[in-house]
Amino acid sequence: MRSIVVERYGGADVLRVKDVPVPTPKPNEALVKLLAIGVNFIDVYHRTGLYPIPLPHAIGQEGAGVVEAVGAEVSEVRVGDRVVFTGALGAYSEYHVVSAEKLVKLPDALSFEQGAAAMLQGMTAHYLAFAMRPIARGDVALVHAAAGGVGLLLVQLLKRLGARVIGVVSTEAKAKLAKEAGADDVIVATQSDFEAETKRLTDGKGVQIVFDSVGKDTWEKSLNSLAPRGMMVSYGNASGAVPPFSPLLLSQKGSIFLARPALHHFTATREELLTRAGDVFRWIESGELKLRIEHRFALDEARQAHEALEGRKTTGKILLIP
Ligand code: NDP
Predict the structure, then answer these.
(1) 183 within ligand 1 shell (Cβ under 6 A)
(2) Domain of 26: which CATH number?
(3) Cβ–ligand 1 contact at 87 (below 6 Å)
(4) Contact 217, 189 (CB under 8 A)
């Protein structure tokens, strides 16, 4: 089978198509034939080594497909089931063995593409909206990369909770998408300073919560955009990791709270995984949550997919189709 393997950390050019044997599931694993694979920014961190992985290793976290074989101890799924998963390194492959406890059955109404697009970014938007701090009606939330994969879903869930949402994007075209997702205001950060603009939009008060996935480039201004006792949710590093700082900074910026969460801690038990995935799938089925799948690449084009993602050329979800 074909698999996209990283042998050394580096740019998108280190992604290699390899011919490797189809893996055999261990007793607690299932073999999944992949029909759609999710591309996520974490795959870039694994490729560059920002989040180290043992090398050589196939990358990718997320996929949807059909169970082809199960280990002796597996009770969660059966051969022939349509399934989705996230958090299983090596998903840029034609087949993947996945711990059965990470597999979620895909509702009949959803396509494999929708499944692969919904899992990682959908459950991330879910825990960001519901598990950081209670969002009260009228709270103002600042969402960076608001037209991205997580961003478009997060905007919709925050609106569902009654927040006023200010999105930040880099182009007018992305601003239009963020608005369509429900953002009340959208700042095009290449045209105006997002900190000054956020202050202006909130009559100088600042926002109750910032969702910052950009990291290094936006850290300081994101902190400055918060109202006293607001919360900074730093959940990604698209521009690079935030440098070390003193906790005193949080006091100086208004006794603000800082969260630095990761999805796997919010899907840590089978029950939590099924609850979050179940909500996301149900809302997609009912039309309450809209997925945007704009970019499809062949599995062999993983390099081009990464170049587009890092080049800020994408909106919504990127898929690899084996
Ligand atoms: P996106 O689709 O959001 O793509 C990244 C976007 O970030 C770009 O489109 C761009 O939007 C913006 N961006 C700003 N600066 C840069 C830069 N220097 N280089 C590249 N992009 C930049 O990706 P995902 O939805 O996959 O992920 C979004 C973020 O969420 C990532 O940081 C990811 O690591 C994080 N994440 C965190 C999780 C967690 O649990 N902690 C789980 C899932 C994702 P624009 O052009 O509008 O600025």
Answers:
(1) no
(2) 3.90.180.10
(3) no
(4) no
**Which residue has the least CA distance to atom 12 on ligand 1?**
145
- The CATH number of residue 218's host domain is 3.40.50.720
CA of 248 from ligand 1 middle (Å) equals 28
> CA of 213: how far to CAs of 91, 142, 234, in Å?
23, 11, 6
Per-residue pLDDT, 22: 98
- Determine the pLDDT at residue 238: 98
Q: How far is the CA of 318 from the centre of ligand 1 (A)?
A: 12
- What domain range includes position 161? 133-260
CA of 229 to the centre of ligand 1 (A): 26
- The closest of 298, 316, 277 to 86, measured between CA atoms, is 277
- Atom of ligand 1 lying closest to residue 318 CA: 2
Read off the pLDDT band of 53 (50, 70, 90).
very high
Q: Do 303 and 214 share a structural domain?
A: no
List CB contacts of 95: < 8 A, sequence separation 6 or more: 1, 22, 23, 31, 32, 33, 34, 68
Q: How far apart are CA 151 and CA 291, in angstroms?
A: 11
